[in-house]
Specification:
The structure is a homodimer. By secondary structure, chain A is of the alpha/beta class. Chain A has 13 helices and 16 strands. In chain A, helix 5 packs parallel to helix 10 and helix 11 packs parallel to helix 13. The N and C termini of chain A lie far apart (about 90 Å). The interface between A and B is large, with 88 and 86 residues. Chains A, B: It comes from Solanum tuberosum (Potato).
């Protein structure tokens, strides 16, 4: 009815009417624009909706929470602890990869490491310069599928191809449990695992692997053999300020690093080597060329983005909340976990842990003792097989025997999901305070 | 002067003035909104602006165009030909990766291949089912850092760890030039390169590598040794309908594939193996665990997206232009390049090429002869060293000697950028029609 009435009325717009209409259109367009700006603030993708973001953070936490009767697997050093930080960073490290990217094998034909993405090389240099943990000037960067591949590349590059006997490879016990497996996997005629460096006969040529802070026990290491024919490879995967004070700028001949333990992105499979000698860097490159025709470009691009955002949180502080300072955030989390762990262990006489000397960190200015990514836990009293004992109580760890040490020890990953870690601490506290634990 | 005049004038806005201002604001807001809609049509990133897209396509082409006095490098099989197709697909294969992805080492703890992304496994199965080139039912999928790593994983899995002598590895000449390099790289005690399969003594146990279509010569291959102690590994990197008729569904014990030659994404470094025997698949997985603690998740996610889009172009035809059917598009490009190549070679007596039998392709329904990714070119007449001859004319190729064959032959990549290919054809035509080429 109202409609037909309006149709029959003669409506003659005045300038005043037109003005009102125009202002109304303005308001409408402005609202739509504001809505657009709001969408533009984020990037499209699974994590752009703030509502989804919250849901996803919850998912991560929920996924990790083990029931009290479930096994907790702390055998591997899976760095899932880091997920919460990167979720909080939202879309700042989101990477958009177009379908036409990563076609060619080549990343930089002018570099002897032709599969090294220049952006990744820049990000690595920038981060080392920020943290001060390793020299990069006059070093050659070689990228690898994790530091595992680079470690093999170094052995290949350093072992003579025509020697009558395979090169001896040693590392001081307790050593990284994968060293013997990787080295002897193919029964190479170039090199051979010879075990504990402290028991090595110095007359033969050898390569000594120096892991510092050490996996499994977190100790700060230097070469132990000191023979004349020795070559050193330094695995510095854990030489970052969340784990240990950065007390000097490392400048060894070959230094290995990995994204896995620095940023927590283990699934990216990216590591890098800083190599002084150009010919060694070239031979390492050759090994990676032969064994996998280079290294994933996608992973290098992602790693570059992530390392750059870490540097940004320090160098472009105006754009970031202070709580997002990466190394500070993770340092605090590690410190908290170590407090919880030491408190649980001190509840009784069942377990013991190493103490680490306190040093000043040149990066943060703070004084602290190493707070490693793994605990090297000793079972005391009558418990002979520590791994077996903990397994009975549904905590999976790795026995000291895998590291060239005793079964009184286990290595326990401390960098898993928070919920998993809390449940581990709860169980360990109970075991620790038992009067006479039976194996 | 004009400014002071205006300042002294009294400006009293009428409703008419206000209307004009309001309409002007309307127009401004509308323009800004339209600009927003324009941006929104694509995804953010370097390739979202249609103007940029065009520029980037041009860049690819321009980048590839060699000057007439420049070297053309056709030594490697770098599949840059594929860039144009993926650029044309715009954002359909764009992948957004969030900063919190790829943290854990694990992709699927229920699968024996624990680093295999389920989405990638699904995409592989889906594509094989679409194309019909290989059975997937009752096969185990193992993912690798390219098929190069999987090939080594297969050798590790199939060679006994306690045999008195290393396992013999053979392949019929001309064989893939990297086989001897990869196999003997570490002087393994598990296996050893024994060269041309057709000259192999049948009494020893051995592994025969069957590459079909073959790299370098494109021939369709079957095992040649036929000994009782033989194990076969089939490298089917080129068994895709752009290169050869899909005449049967392959169901060999171990079949290797790679994204590089299927979709052209060589820089992704992703390959996969279809393995019948569960224990062999497990041992292959073990090798990849030891040598690189799994395979890049980012690359697997990208590969999954790309393989799925290829299947989509066939299975969701309503969403795609017919010109985007992936295998048809690339088939046509390969057919064109082979016509150009044969036409250039037929201009004289300088060169010759193999002929390939015509067969029906069960995938496309078409009848055609293999049109390999490489040309296996023979220099005729007095030209003894074909690589050297072409190098003098600024065409870099790989000599037959690397493939266990004669220096009369070279392998030439046919899957580089169009501009590079056209320039190669131009130069080859000139050489071909020379009356008496001198080496």
């Amino acid at each position: 009815m109202g409609f037909s009435l309006m149709r029959n009325q003669k409506f003659m717009p005045t300038i005043k009417h037109l003005l009102i209409i125009s202002i109304a259109i303005n308001a409408g367009l402005l609202l739509k624009l504001l809505h657009h700006e709001h969408e533009w603030a984020g990037l499209p993708g699974p994590d752009t909706n703030p509502k989804n973001e919250v849901r996803l953070v919850k998912d991560v936490l929920r996924k990790a929470k083990p029931a009290t009767d479930q096994f907790i697997n702390l055998d591997h050093g899976d760095p899932t602890m880091y997920e919460v930080y990167w979720k909080q960073m939202g879309d700042k490290t989101t990477l958009v990869l177009s379908g036409w990217q990563s076609i060619s094998y080549f990343s930089d034909t002018k570099n002897h490491c032709w599969f090294l993405e220049p952006g990744f090389a820049n990000a690595v240099t920038r981060l080392h310069n920020l943290v001060g943990n390793a020299q990069t000037r006059n070093y050659h960067i070689v990228v690898g599928t994790g530091s595992t591949q680079l470690f093999q590349a170094a052995l290949y590059a350093l072992s003579p191809s025509n020697a009558p006997e395979p090169m001896s490879i040693v590392s001081a016990a307790p050593f990284y449990s994968s060293y013997p497996l990787i080295i002897d996997c193919l029964k190479s005629g170039l090199y051979k695992w010879k075990g504990d460096a402290s028991k090595f006969n110095k007359d033969d040529p050898y390569i000594e692997l120096v892991t510092s802070p050490n996996n499994p026990d977190g100790s700060i290491r230097q070469a132990v053999v000191n023979g004349s024919g020795g070559i050193l490879v330094h695995d510095l995967a854990y030489y970052w300020p969340q784990y240990t004070p950065i007390s000097f700028q490392a400048n060894h001949d070959i230094m290995l690093f990995t994204v896995s333990k620095c940023t927590g992105h283990a699934g990216i499979r990216i590591g890098w080597a800083l190599v002084k000698d150009k010919e060694v860097a070239k031979k390492m490159t050759k090994f990676i060329e032969i064994s996998s025709i280079g290294v994933s470009k996608d992973s290098q691009l992602r790693a570059a983005k992530i390392l750059d955002v870490i540097a940004d949180t320090y160098e472009h502080t105006e754009k970031f909340d202070k709580a997002t300072l990466f190394f500070h955030y993770v340092y605090n989390e590690m410190a908290k976990r170590w407090r919880q762990l030491r408190s649980a262990v001190s509840k009784g006489q069942t377990f013991s842990l190493l103490d680490f000397p306190v040093e000043k960190c040149n990066f943060s200015g703070q004084r602290f003792g190493t707070q490693p990514a793994f605990a090297w836990l000793k079972c005391e009293k009558s418990i002979d097989d520590c791994e077996k004992f903990l397994k009975k109580h549904k905590i999976l760890t790795r026995s000291g025997t895998h590291f060239g040490s005793s079964e009184k020890y286990v290595r326990i990953s401390l960098i898993s999901h928070k919920e998993e870690y809390d449940e581990f601490i709860r169980r360990l506290s109970l075991l620790s305070s038992m009067n006479s634990p039976h194996e």
